[in-house]
Amino acid sequence: MNEQVIPKPKFQVLNLYLVVSYTVFLILAIILYSVIVVFPTMYTAQETRVPDVLSLSQEEAETLLKDAGLQNFDIHHLPSEDFSEGEVIRISPVPGTRVKLNSRVSIHIAE
């Protein structure tokens, strides 16, 4: 028996190439978008600004720091004649400084 090979019409082959090309293009576009937009935000440390807590009470200062995402802070008590007892007289880093979330902050409280 002689079997004849029937060639596929050209438009079917062209459609196949278009579908494959379009699929590859979409996959590459998704990968490029992920590399440029999604991945950098996943690996960037979030930052916040140190709030101005000078002259506030220790409790108020701690609340503002926690609200700003700064959970780790050291409290030091220093004698002071210029501030009332229990007020924040100094903070490090300086208020307004951009720091990473959960950075350590030092609060100095007047005795």
Describe the structure.
This protein is an alpha+beta fold and 111 residues long. The chain has two domains: 9-44; 47-110, Trypsin Inhibitor V, Chain A, CATH 3.30.10. It has two helices and five strands, in the order αβαββββ. The strands form two sheets. Strands 2-5-3 form a three-stranded mixed β-sheet, covered by helices on one side. Strands 1-4 form a two-stranded antiparallel ribbon. The chain is rod-shaped, with a radius of gyration of 31 Å.
Roughly how many Å is the radius of gyration?
31 Å
**Low-confidence parts lasting 5 or more residues at pLDDT below 50?**
none
Mean pLDDT: 87
Report the CATH C-level class of the largest domain: Alpha Beta
Distance between the termini: 108 Å
Please provide the count of β strands. 5
- Choose one word for the global shape: rod-shaped
Strand order, biggest sheet?
2-5-3
- The SSE order reads HEHEEEE
How many helices? The count is: 2
Structural class: alpha+beta
Put the structure in a nutshell.
The protein has 111 residues and is α+β, with helices and mostly antiparallel strands. 40% of the residues lie in helices and 21% in strands. The chain starts with 9 loop residues before the first helix and ends with a strand.
